[in-house]
Amino acid sequence: MKRPKEKFLQELSVPSQSCWEEGTIVCSKRNMIKSRDIRRVIGAIIFSLFLQSASAQTTCSWTTPPPSSVNEKTQQINGLSISCPGGATSTAILTSSVDSTLSLSIQLVNGAGTFPAFTLTKGATQAGGTQTLAVSINGASVLTGKTYVIPQTVDIGFLANFDVPSGWMDYSLPPIVFTSVLNEERSLLPNTVVNLNAKPSNCSVTVSAASAFSFLSSPTIVAIMGPDCSGCAMVDAPMAAAFDVPVISGTNGNPALSDKSVYKMYMRTLANNDAEDSFLLSIIQYYGWKYVNLVTFDYLPYGDHMYAALSELNVTVSVNLVLQSGKTTYTTEFQQLTKSKVSIILTNVYNNVNLDSDAMFRTAVALNMFDYPFVWLFGNPSGDDFTSTTIVPDSKKTGHFYFRRSPTITNAAWRQKVCDRLNNDTWMTTNGWGGPYLQRTKGLTVPTMTDYGLWNMNAVLTIFYALQSLIYTQKIDFDGQLLYTTMRALNFTGVQGPMAFDSNGDAYNVPAEGLAWIPGQKFQPVGTILPVIGSQFLKFTPNTAFSWASGNTTQPNGVICDHNCGQGSCSQPGTCICKTGWVQDKTLFLAGGSDCTIALCSACVNGQCVAPNVCQCNPHGLEATVVSSHFHFNKQASMTKPKRARKHLR
């Protein structure tokens, strides 16, 4: 029975009803409710509710608790039951902290009950993760438990190249197909499918940035693979980091991307171009070339590493030529190279948005710069362009160098599966890669797969291994930063061999092969390139004979002289260095004749100096004698007086 209002007010020490009945906000001081008494009453009520709640929590428990982990959507949770002795016939409701679709209600019998079987779905912004299952009775939470939801799918963005057949064949399709192979094998992620969602980058900063932003606008994308070109990565990677999304590429070589102060969540499955330079430097070091010309382009100029390394090897850069990308010929620029009298040329120019290597090849052929004694050393992907171009006749490719990574361990099975699918028109068409994408697929073999396709396949593998660690081994919630850190820490066997990353997120170099163009065989291995312990340099060791340009068997010394050096050698650009005891013939030299043709003898009595310290008798028959304080001669010969020749009778 309710207490009379008057008694209630009296208990609250309110002497008058006027304020209560009239609802007056402002009352006289003697009629005002004592606020401290009200606070005491309210506090007592709250404490009473707390005790009730605490009592309820201590009397409920799991009879069958939630499993530690469960597969999303496909694995049912059966027999989840609770016991609440004080709950009698109460209604218990089960909900999830993430899966908003879960709401199960059961009627307890004698304080116990079992929820019907159910499945869980990951959150819209999660790649799986921990969910809290809460049981409530009469609106109050009485019991909680946690379970880790293994995601059914994980979404990855792929900034790919679909601009030209070489783009989709060399860059894009191998990792896409490889993802399908790993998804079907189920060896790394048994109950999870990785969706590799491809959008165009096409080596265009604007196209790539638009695609990247589209990925970043999706809450399900946990990482981005690509883009295809370094210039695009310089825009896309910082933008992705702002969204806490890591970027991993298998095709970017620019050393600037190693700067962690700018590209904080970027990594790559290849060594940067500074490390690639070491392959070419090993060849220069072996042959002892002391002068080189660098040919690069404003799209990707050589970095400081090349200059520092060349300087350490006492190699002089005669001309550092930076070509303007997009020109159709470079005649004026290449004339600087021919005037330098240096025949060793290092280049990293390749066809990208513009056909720059085509323009370079066309110009060099016109100026006979692939003939002896020129030697070209191609970086990646310049060598790929040189191998496939028809602008340079095969007869003029002889004796020029390229390099190819040659890992000691390869996974031929994975590579073969990728080739089999790329060569299968039915598979390609069924999976959405028919039409123009069939142009270059047939005939692909494991040996003809390019480094770029393999590096991108390693990028896919890096993501799979990281997800395996986070989702299946550790079963922990992760954000973009943790995913990036996990990928960086990996050490595994990839499709090309051992894969590991340095502190900048760049893959470590692997052993390589030095390749030279051999007539009828194209580029063939002619030596090994191996790391040197304790040194930043690599060591090139030839193991196969080959010819230099124009079929010449004599190693070029790297410099050019316009005339015959005679008793000397062309050791400096355009300059003959005479052997000891020989000097230049200024008259012949200025006339374009031989150099180093005058022998040194201080004086020849009745003869002429024909070699250092060698006098030839004059035509009158007198014995010639060398008189010199600069040379040491036989004592007896030096003390013998010249003999007069006998006169012949007429």
Automatic annotation (TrEMBL):
One of its GO terms (molecular function) is G protein-coupled GABA receptor activity. The keyword Transmembrane applies. It is found in: Membrane. InterPro entries: ANF_lig-bd_rcpt, GPCR3_GABA-B, Peripla_BP_I. Pfam families: ANF_receptor. Residues 182-510 form the Receptor ligand binding region domain. GO terms for biological process: gamma-aminobutyric acid signaling pathway. Keywords: G-protein coupled receptor, Glycoprotein, Membrane, Receptor, Transducer, Transmembrane, Transmembrane helix. This is Periplasmic binding protein-like I. It comes from Rhizoclosmatium globosum.
